[in-house]
Amino acid sequence: METGSKIQSWAPNLPKMGSGSNTFTVDDALISQGFGYFQVLVLAYAGMGWISEATEMMLLSFVGPSVQVQWNLSSHEESLITSVVFVGMLIGAYSWGIVSDNYGRRVGFLFTAIVTSGAGLLSAFAPNYISLLLLRFVVGIGLGGGPVLASWFLEFVPAPNRGTWMVIFQGFWTIGTILEASLAWAVMPKLGWRWLLVFSSIPSFLLLLFYRIVPESPRYLCMKGRTSEAMHILEKMARTNRATLPPGVLVSDIRTELNENPNPSESTNLINVQDKKTKVVDEVEPKTGGISAVAKLLSPELIRSTLLLWITFFGNAFSYYGIVLLTSELSGGSSNCASESIISHSVGSSLYKNVFISSFAEVPGLLLSATIVDRLGRKLSMSAMLFISCAFLLPLVVEQNEAITTVFLFGARVCISGSFNIVYVYAPEIYPTSFRTTGVGTASSVGRIGGMLCPLVAVALVHGCHQTIALLLFELVLFLSGMAVIFFPLETSGKGLADSVSSMK
Predict the structure, then answer these.
(1) Kind and range of the H or E run holding 43
(2) Which residues pair with 257 in a beta bridge?
(3) pLDDT average, residue stretch 76-83
(4) In the chain, helix, strand, coil percent, each to 5?
(5) What are the C-alpha distances in Å from 151 to residues 145, 166, 283, 367, 398?
(6) Fewest CB atoms within 10 Å of the CB: 144, 222, 319, 474?
(7) How far apart are the C-alpha atoms of 97 and 444, rounded to whole Å?
């Protein structure tokens, strides 16, 4: 929870309301309340969505090898089971971002939950390889809505410790990976991959179960000119947190025209002001989509940040999923080069044990990123973790035994998961509310390209007995990602969120 001293020490960095001013922004309202019980409930719901995405992604490490053996698939056909999910996520991340910016965050993650839960459950009954590919592709489209939940949660968090709370939110991904590894270990040997798909769809159904009580983002509502609805949610938040809102009229940092009482009472709140016919007119951003959305992201003010963010997302996704898949492919030790020995080993108990152990690497990654993200800033934290992950993978270029391989993969996963946590903190902060989820969704789509190419390129190289080339490829991608982070023009730590491009200047 935010302490009074922390709020006061950060308050000078807020846009001043000034003496005699009777307006406040969503940032002011969040700072006045701190992180309370209301935000905890929002965190729990968004976290369930993140668990859902993690379980659906992690199960690919187990389903692919089992389906390959059962249906006598080639290595290329096995890789496609993973790749089609990323193709779907590429489409979904961009599409759901536009939907949520135009029609609301709630609408965005409602449809993603419906698509993910429905297709995830149906894929357990896939009668053949082609139907499984099609259903996992649809699951990927639903999973592409993950950035919507991240942006939604971000917009409820006060700025002073926003980085820490966003990393805690990312911790639900860690919970999901450990849950899925445990589930696979318990379910796969006895019940098989179909039951694993059934159980893994449950978190998405829970999102639908509690959807009716989920609030819309007040920052989104305010940006759209629906200030009375935004104020209703902020008042409910204040009651739940047992806090008070700043006096006056709620406004967005998009241009406003105010017709108000120049001498409001200190106890005045927006409900009373609105009853007196106070007129608040916000400049509402027009709906965007397609080429116009991309054009905004590539505008002169944002093009550098956008392109560097795309490189960083690509590198993080390629490396993260590569390290996860390498844990499966190298689970028998790096001497197991022939594809037949890899296949026979990958469906054994060693796979479940190694993936389960490596999943716990995300716990120290989470703790480390939570500790440094606000202290060192987003840029330094991300670049350091990417370069250290690069260093952990370097010894694996030379053949090592299974224990050493597992240790180095563990260390690399600590750092790449920490970097991935922070990039999901940073990405929503560099875009304004008017197209925040479009920006994050587009960047996430580029990341999905990295995830899609990873099993087709890197893991295929391992199958083809080219482990050294595969690892050098990871080294190059990690290094270039770290360099991209260094050249980001903005450090967002401790800064309020902007509602429009003009307010970012």
Answers:
(1) helix 37-58
(2) 281
(3) 79
(4) 75, 0, 25
(5) 10, 10, 22, 21, 41
(6) 474
(7) 10
Alpha-carbon distances, residue 280 vs 55, 104, 247, 273, 340 (angstroms): 45, 21, 15, 10, 69
Antiparallel, parallel or unpaired: β 256-259 and 279-282: antiparallel
Cβ atoms of 336 and 62 closer than 8 Å: no
Q: How many CB atoms lie within 10 A of CB 299?
A: 11
- Which residue is listed with tokens 């949660």? 153
Residues 462, 394: Cα–Cα separation, whole Å:
16
Cβ burial of 357 (10 Å; 0-12, 13-18, 19+) is: middle
Distance between alpha carbon 177 and the CA centroid of its chain, in Å? 14
Q: Is the torsion defined by CA of 145, 38, 174, 120 positive or negative?
A: negative
3-class SS letters over 55-69: HHHHCHHHHHHHHHH
CB atoms within 10 A of CB 373: 27
Q: Which of 6-10, 320-324, 391-395 has the lowest mean pLDDT?
A: 6-10
Whether the per-residue pLDDT at 345 is higher than 50: the answer is no
Residue type, 367: L
pLDDT higher than 50, residue 5: no
Other CB atoms within 10 Å distance of the CB of residue 418? 31
Percentage of the chain exceeding pLDDT 90: 15
Tallying the residues shown for the chain, one arrives at 505
45 pLDDT band (50/70/90 cuts)?
A: very high
Q: How far is the C-alpha of 204 from the C-alpha of 221, rounded, in Å?
A: 25
Torsion of CA 29, 33, 36, 38, to 10 degrees: -40
Task: Tell me how far apart the alpha carbons of residues 36 and 38 are, in angstroms, rounded to a whole number.
Answer: 5
pLDDT 10s digits, 160-204: 778 788 888 888 888 888 888 888 888 888 888 899 999 988 988
Is the model more confident about 403 or about 53? 53
Q: Can you read off the two tokens belonging to residue 456?
A: 């087709």
User: Which residues are CB-neighbours of 31 under 8 A, at least 6 positions away?
Assistant: 7, 10, 11, 14, 158, 159, 160
